[in-house]
Amino acid sequence: MLTPPSMRLILLVLSLLAAWPVQAAPPELLASLDALHARRAEASALKELEAALKKELQASPEDYELIWRSSRLMTWQGDVAEDSRLKKVLGRQAWDMCERGVKVAPDRVECHYFAAVGIGTYSQAVGIMKALGEGLEGKFNERLDAAIRINPDFDLGAPLVVKGRYHYELPWPKRDLTESTKLLEKATGKFPQNLRAHYYLAETLLAADKAGKAKESIAKVTQGSGAYDPAEAKLVQGRAKKVEAKIEEELK
């Protein structure tokens, strides 16, 4: 039996509404959350951001804008965590949070990206070999490749940076320094202000026995401006000191 035109129209509208991301948070709230995130290196701002996201998500658990911002915060906390147990928990939470987000808005880049970063954080905490044994590589690449396909320029080329780092982090014989270099050079070429991209490139070049080029890359980190993201820049520049010392030792 044929569906009447009016019914077909109703069904079309319902399907479009079902696919439309739920966004209850007003723009001014999102702007406030982003401003707090920019100050996340400050303990007071970090605490306020955590509390605000928790409160808003309790009221609107399917709000995509809140979901991906919550995962973004968790990946940051996982990155700076020194305790592997805490890193594991935060990585898993960030991953799970953005799996929810992918279901809400499968065509948006943010949750594909932060789910991948969450998986990566979790994998670092449990150990790369164990993560490979758990089959996480496929899940990681599924999310990250989707992010690259949707918008490789997101957050100053972050999907490309993470993919480049992935090829560096893998154990032999899966490690691919050539591909890592290619992706990281692509990111630094388009987004020279991204200090993490230069930092990762320096480590890749050093591992590839190209200490001279690695020195050039690490100098762009230590001498670069952190205006684009002060918290991120401070973190990366602090980590760069050890790499800089290794490069100088290699060049002796």
Automatic annotation (TrEMBL):
Q: Does the keyword Signal apply?
A: yes
Signal peptide as annotated in the record? 1-24
Q: What keywords appear on the UniProt entry? A: Signal
Q: What is this protein called?
A: Conserved uncharacterized protein
